[in-house]
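Sanity check

After download, print the first record. It should look like this:
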Amino acid sequence: DVDTASGTTEHPTLGASRSPCVVLAAWGGHASTVAALLDAGADADRGDSHGQTALYVAASQAEHALWPAAG
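Expected structure tokens:
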């Protein structure tokens, strides 16, 4: 369930997440979901409990894709 006032999620088994839905979508690599949430009015500046915003997460994910571990 999503609390539209706070933008947080409630998983039936795991409980509440303090991360905004848009940040969780970014961590999951779901760009179209991030875009839809932002279009619907999600706060792009709201971070998770560590202060990481969706933009930070997306940039972090892109960095990891661009710089894979040497193997």
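If your output differs, re-run the checksum step. Summary of this record's structure: The beta strands are 2-3, 8-11, 15-17.
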